[in-house]
Design goal:
433 residues; binds pyridoxal-5'-phosphate; four-stranded mixed sheet; 14 helices; globular; Aspartate Aminotransferase, domain 1; Aspartate Aminotransferase, domain 2
Length: 433
């Protein structure tokens, strides 16, 4: 049964007249899946509803933040209660230290944390701090890793070899990215070569410890440990960008799962409970270089916003208090979902490689394996688009891109994942027809 799309279509046309592409973040335009985006009017638990009244089982979860599902009653109560006391003061409120305390308890290396309003601000500020602390200019990032849209981090990856300073966006002068070195993910030799070439000039290595932004790509065994060893040896700061993985893979993030401790951690998404928040933290000896204590300037009118703090505290307390039930259950539920869909694909003769860590995963339409951007980009985005549309028509809402991770929340049930597997079987059948 085709979905009703009339009202969403009208809303999209209206928005397109006033907002570039009709969207405030490009992936929402559904460009790569060649279909019109539903306009969402409501979410509850694992489900969302669009303006035409279609109901969907949601595996996007606002791109990661909603680990507790939509409109969780505890979170809604925390936000409304905070709002009734005023929405912003531009002055300190007690809730900021409450959220900081939970984050510090989750990440042993963090002694101090600064809150901002987005993941982009968090990584941008952490890079500035690392450059100030080390008094060096270069940074290393990895192809396919996304760290927000700050100029220096929007660097496209060259194939295979280290690529220096090629802007990944119009409007970013080469001069602004000339100190950004982009290397292939999961390749320790490439990192060693960069350090040999730029001796004592690399301020920081920034990495998504489990990549979510080229689709889900886990670190090879020993990779994160090798990054830790090289950066420690070279007096370079290691930054784990845990904006997606923090509180997603475990209460202590990817660093707890893999047992590797960075110098700085950037956060976002889940720590805001669905409201706009970012954060960066580390040892006091580094963090105290930030203004007003130190010379690294960073500020924000709405930073530490009381509504965002309240939502974050509500979600993180839930995760902390129930971590022994929540994370194992997410692991089990997601593992079965991902594996069952792979079995359906193989039954239908569709080449599919599944990557998964905890409750984040991607079905890549390739025979795989997918270990870095080069192998991820082998995936057949056209096949994915067909699969995506077939799933959407069966009320399953996946990320509208082959190169994004999907998420399972605590609101998802066994019945939900069974519904998803059945839809996938149907989708693979139509793709083959
Ligand atoms: C989402 C994301 C960001 C950017 O966060 P925004 O809040 O969208 O600015 C940065 N790094 C990673 C790893 C992310 O997943």
């Amino acid at each position: 049964m085709p979905r009703k799309t009339e009202i969403s279509r009208r809303l999209a046309a209206r928005a397109a007249g006033m907002i570039p592409g009709g969207v405030n973040s490009p992936v929402r335009a559904f460009g790569s899946v060649e279909c019109e985006p539903p306009f969402i009017v409501r979410g509850q638990g694992a489900r969302i509803w669009d303006a035409d009244g279609n109901e969907y089982l949601d595996y996007v979860g606002s791109w990661g933040p909603l680990i507790a599902g939509h409109a969780h009653p505890v979170v809604v109560k925390a936000i409304t209660s905070a709002a009734s006391n005023g929405t912003s003061f531009g002055a300190s409120t007690p809730s900021e230290a409450d959220l900081a305390e939970i984050i510090i308890s989750a990440f042993p290396h963090i002694e101090k944390v600064r809150f901002v309003s987005s993941g982009t601000e968090a990584t941008m500020s952490a890079i500035r701090l690392a450059r100030a602390y080390t008094e060096r200019k270069y940074i290393v990032k990895f192809s396919g890793c996304y760290h927000g849209h700050a100029d220096a981090l929007l660097v496209k990856a060259g194939s295979g070899v280290a690529t220096l300073g090629i802007p990944g966006s119009a409007g970013v002068p080469e001069e602004f990215t000339q100190f950004t070195i982009a290397l292939p993910f999961n390749d320790v030799d490439a990192v060693e070569q960069a350090f040999a070439k730029f001796k004592q000039q690399i301020a920081a290595v920034i990495v998504e410890p489990v990549v979510g932004n080229m689709g889900c790509v886990p670190p090879a065994p020993g990779y994160l440990r090798a990054l830790r060893e090289v950066t420690a040896r070279e007096n370079t700061l290691l930054i784990f960008d845990e904006v997606m993985t923090g509180f997603r893979l475990a209460f202590g993030g990817a660093q707890a799962v893999y047992g590797v401790t960075p110098d700085l951690t950037t956060m976002g998404k889940i720590i805001g409970g669905g409201l706009p928040v970012g954060g960066y933290g580390g040892p006091a000896g580094i963090m105290d270089m930030v203004a007003p204590l130190g010379p690294v300037y960073q500020a924000g009118t709405l930073s530490g916003n009381p509504l965002a703090m309240a939502a974050g505290i509500a979600v993180l307390r839930m995760l902390r208090d129930q971590q022994n039930e929540i994370y194992p259950r997410l692991e089990k539920l997601t593992a079965k979902l991902v594996q069952d869909v792979v079995l359906e694909a193989s039954g239908a003769g569709v080449p599919l490689t599944a990557n998964r860590v905890g409750s984040m995963f991607t079905w890549f339409f390739t025979s795989g394996p997918v270990t870095d951007w080069d192998s991820a980009s082998q995936a057949d985005a056209k096949s994915f688009a067909g699969f995506f549309r077939a799933m959407l028509d069966q009320s399953i809402y996946l990320p509208p891109s082959q190169f994004e991770a999907a998420f399972v929340s605590t609101a998802h049930t066994d019945a939900d994942t069974r519904q998803t597997v059945a839809a996938a079987r149907q989708a693979f059948a139509t793709m083959h027809a």
